[in-house]
Amino acid sequence: MSPIDWLNSISTFATVFLGIFVEAAAFLMIGSLASGLVEVFLRPNDMARLVPRNPLAAAAVGGLLGLVFPVCECGVVPLARRMVRKGLPMSAAVAFLLAAPVFNPIVIASTLAAFGPSPVFFGRVILSLVIAVATGAVFAANRNPAALLRLPEPALMRGGPMLPPVLFGAEETALARLARVLRVAVDEFFDMGRFLVLGALLAALLQTVVPNAVVLAIGSGPVVSVLVLIALAVLLSVCSTVDAFIALAFAGSFTTGSLLGFLVYGPMVDIKSILLYTGVFKRRVVAYLVLLPLLMTVLAALFINLNTTW
Q: End-to-end CA distance of the chain, in Å?
């Protein structure tokens, strides 16, 4: 490569990295602020009392929490971790983690604006919720949530090693609580931000080295098209609030199943979210979070491609 080509590649890498990071950092901050509010204003067992004891019902409620906490795949990770510390069952937390990036008012509205009330719109919303709840139900088999997280159990039960004890009384003023919310949010942002930076660097590197045209050129057929668009969703690492408009550009040349693979799996698992998961869960758990939704998404997309004429 000539020096000009190297400069162009470096420029492309920097542009893609900054685009991913700036877009995702804003939503990570929103999630971190929500995490601070949960830490300060919810008692340790509040979440457990609000969720049904039945594991499947708890996972279903967790999948619907995105309607109350409209965060994307970057902001949902610190918020889900904080909810677990506050007593949310792991099945509900995993369902929330996977469903919230799609099953929230902002993303539902953006998908409706892009595709209208079409099979792609309804398929994205329904499949995202079903896959998230099913994955959460799998995690209900583990009765010790602390064993799945990177933090040791004592730190988990305290609400984190960096945090002061939680007070729930008249002696704590509104200003003191607000200050504590901001401290927790800053801690969460920098704790998760290092994984976001690494994920954005990897995504930018792959986008620079592997041209999108090469990926799209092999995306034909009911099977290959699904795998290609899922790989592209992981590679691009685009925020779920805007990915519907990117998928719309593929609508004329890709199957409905492959579009749904892009729109369903991408918000659950992409490069930056995998790195964020590794900051919360043990590696074995991250593997489950990556593979279980992948298998269900591929099967659903293939079924749609082979059995419908949409």
A: 45
